């Protein structure tokens, strides 16, 4: 997992200080440690987890007397070891026959078929605590250690636009495993040695696609496409080709430019950024800390440093949609020609056609931007620098970045001030309450003296 991603992770949902490392499978809470997992704020899931694991421990036992006795002996053993805590809860009349009482409680239970709640409710609080400590917390801790080791072994992905030199092929993340495309679209034809996507060959001239010159503000739309691309790459940790359909779904949700058939033209860079960043902020699935969104702006600035970066990015997007279209065609070609038409099959066919058409339109739109940006490097006008457009965009994105950093600083400052005011108000209210209590006590004492 990327070191950069580790810096911008969401914080723990319990302590709200440390970055989260794990996710509760029951409620999707992000947490950083076992202590936070066992917090009172997470008690409902914790109890459920304990009960589920204890039930599994009980159910693996057989119903024969020998296995049942082993289970009872195990429960009796941890009760004996924890009898110091148990004595405070047992009545004095039962201190001499604790073991007999334990056996008496469970003698009529069929461990394999009895309802778990009935078994759990028969245990004392000390027995529950001891069982958790011996069999659940230990196992949970071992699982967490295994997860930590697994995270450390994961290949670290670094965006291709950040690489200054060729990297070892062992660090590659994007990889094609579909044999259907091995001959025509092998990975070597899509990626360079440093994972940088190869620019498409034989790009058409702009005049071949349109006779009238495009809107000058069209280049601003490029910022929205860049924002969507870099966010999607980081969201999938570089694996944008692993599940193309899911990747494309994210791209369509984040970019109005690539999602809509309408010709959207943004008036400024801020609009192009907000169009995607608002989706991220409003959708819990994509929500990230403000630092992550600033990282995206850094990525855009880095990409705008060269026209080749832009052409590589657009080529990568084009390949993604083109390959998904080809894959869809192959799936259609493998289906029988004679199909009995039903409402379900008709709906499925229409959905299939709609998806394919949307892929096709987005693919063509990306190719148009590729042609348009490629044409900026081929202009022969006097004093025309191919990077002028990119430099202007880059400076405007840098301004947006600085503005957002200041907004974040002001937000954090206001947040600290509000928290400080709340603490002061709380202390003031506590003092006022104490003073009222003291006054009431004094009044009661005076009334008592008067009566005497």
TrEMBL record:
Domain of life of the organism encoding this protein: Eukaryota
Point to the regions of Low complexity compositional bias.
436-452
Per UniProt, residues of the HIT-type domain are 12-45
Keywords of the record: Metal-binding, Zinc, Zinc-finger
Q: Which InterPro entries does the entry mention?
A: Shq1_C (IPR007009), Znf_HIT (IPR007529), ZNHIT2 (IPR039646)
Enumerate the transmembrane spans. none
Q: Which GO terms describe its molecular function?
A: zinc ion binding
Q: Where is this region: Disordered?
A: 431-452
Q: Which SUPFAM superfamilies match?
A: HIT/MYND zinc finger-like
Q: Which PANTHER family match?
A: ZINC FINGER HIT DOMAIN CONTAINING PROTEIN 2 PROTEIN FON -RELATED, ZINC FINGER HIT DOMAIN-CONTAINING PROTEIN 2
Name this polypeptide is given: HIT-type domain-containing protein
């Amino acid at each position: 997992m990327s070191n950069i991603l580790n810096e911008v992770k969401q914080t723990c949902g319990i302590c709200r200080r440390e970055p989260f490392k794990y996710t509760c499978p029951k409620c999707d809470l992000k947490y950083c440690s076992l202590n936070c997992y066992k917090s009172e704020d997470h008690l409902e899931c914790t109890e459920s987890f304990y009960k589920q694991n204890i039930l599994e421990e009980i159910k693996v036992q057989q119903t024969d007397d020998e296995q049942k006795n082993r289970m009872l002996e195990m429960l009796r053993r941890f009760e004996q070891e924890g009898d110091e805590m148990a004595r405070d809860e047992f009545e004095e009349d039962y201190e001499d026959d604790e073991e007999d009482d334990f056996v008496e409680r469970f003698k009529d239970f069929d461990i394999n078929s009895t309802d778990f709640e009935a078994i759990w409710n028969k245990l004392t609080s000390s027995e529950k605590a001891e069982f958790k400590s011996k069999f659940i917390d230990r196992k949970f801790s071992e699982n967490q250690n295994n997860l930590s080791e697994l995270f450390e072994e994961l290949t670290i992905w670094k965006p291709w636009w950040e690489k200054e030199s060729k990297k070892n092929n062992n660090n590659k993340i994007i990889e094609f495993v579909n044999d259907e495309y091995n001959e025509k679209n092998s990975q070597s034809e899509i990626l360079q040695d440093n994972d940088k996507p190869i620019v498409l060959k034989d790009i058409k001239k702009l005049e071949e696609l349109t006779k009238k010159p495009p809107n000058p503000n069209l280049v601003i739309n490029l910022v929205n496409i860049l924002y969507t691309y870099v966010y999607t790459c980081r969201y999938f940790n570089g694996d944008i080709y692993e599940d193309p359909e899911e990747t494309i779904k994210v791209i369509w949700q984040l970019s109005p430019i690539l999602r809509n058939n309408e010709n959207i033209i943004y008036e400024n860079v801020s609009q192009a950024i907000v169009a995607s960043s608002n989706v991220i902020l409003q959708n819990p699935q994509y929500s990230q800390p403000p630092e992550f969104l600033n990282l995206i702006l850094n990525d855009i600035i880095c990409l705008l440093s060269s026209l080749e970066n832009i052409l590589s990015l657009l080529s990568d997007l084009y390949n993604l949609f083109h390959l998904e279209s080809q894959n869809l065609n192959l799936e259609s070609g493998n289906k029988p020609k004679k199909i009995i038409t039903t409402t379900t099959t008709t709906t499925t066919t229409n959905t299939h056609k709609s998806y394919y058409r949307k892929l096709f339109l987005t693919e063509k739109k990306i190719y148009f931007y590729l042609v348009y940006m490629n044409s900026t490097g081929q202009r022969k006008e006097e004093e025309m620098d191919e990077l002028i457009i990119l430099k202007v965009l880059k400076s405007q994105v840098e301004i947006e970045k600085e503005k957002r950093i200041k907004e974040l600083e002001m937000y954090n400052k206001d947040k600290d001030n509000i928290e400080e005011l709340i603490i002061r108000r709380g202390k003031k209210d506590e003092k006022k309450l104490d003073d009222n209590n003291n006054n009431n006590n004094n009044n009661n004492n005076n009334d008592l003296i008067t009566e005497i």
